[in-house]
Amino acid sequence: MKIVNKNGQKPNHARYRKVLEAKAEEVRRSMSAQKAAQVVARLDVPSDEGDLSQQHHEEWIFLNRNTIDMKLLREVSDALHRIDQDTYGICMECDEPISAKRLDAVPWARFCVTCQELISTRIADGELVEYQEADR
Ligand SMILES: [Zn+2]
After folding, report:
1. pLDDT tens digit sequence for 26-57
2. Is the pLDDT of residue 21 over 60?
3. DSSP sequence for 11-52
4. Which residues surround ligand 1, an ion (CB under 5 A)?
5. What is the percent of the chain with per-residue pLDDT over 70, rounded to a whole number?
6. Whose CA is closest to 131, among 114, 113, 110?
7. What's the pLDDT at 47?
8. S-S: 112 plus which of 91, 97, 118, 129, CB 3.0-4.6 Å?
9. Nearest to residue 42, comparing CAs of 50, 28, 27, 52?
10. Residues 88, 79 contacting (CB under 8 angstroms)
11. Which residue from 85, 79, 136, 80 is spatially nearest to 111, judged by alpha carbons?
12. For residue 51, how far is its CA from the centre of ligand 1 (angstroms)?
């Protein structure tokens, strides 16, 4: 008999779901806080060229930071989707279970440590730009 809870999920998955949902909430909040900060910053209309380029620089930082948040948010929601599909915690590269230690550190991990290192090396070598899921 399989060990499942009332929702038919593995108990660990329910725990990771909570962690992931909290993380998604945290990222969303951080993103809207940044948006609010940007709106406030925009109220200061730049008076000369120097201020303008400074503002461009700040916008670039803002966009860059937001891109990282967006990416993380997507990783987290993909992980939640994998819990729904019951494929959570399985390496997408070698189909081996990802260790609990790794999932505790990175709950949205797609790959086991071995595959992640291989992929990182391939990205560093310029062989891969970014890992894309095959079914997209
Ligand atoms: Zn793997």
Report:
1. 999 988 887 777 766 766 655 566 666 777 77
2. yes
3. HHHHHHHHHHHHHHHHHHHHHHHHHHHHHHHHTS---SHHHH
4. 91, 93-94, 112, 115
5. 76
6. 110
7. 59
8. 91
9. 52
10. yes
11. 79
12. 49
| Residue 80 token pair | 């939640």
Tokens of 91: 């390496």
Contacts of 108 (CB under 8 A, 6+ apart): 20, 23, 72, 75, 76, 78, 79
* Whole-angstrom Cα Rg for the chain: 20
Q: Please tell me the distance between residue 95's alpha carbon and the centre of ligand 1 in angstroms.
A: 6
Could you give the CA distance from residue 91 to residue 51 in angstroms, rounded to a whole number? 48
Residue found by looking up tokens 């997209």 in the block: 136
Q: Residues near 133 by Cβ (< 8 Å), separated by ≥ 6?
A: 92
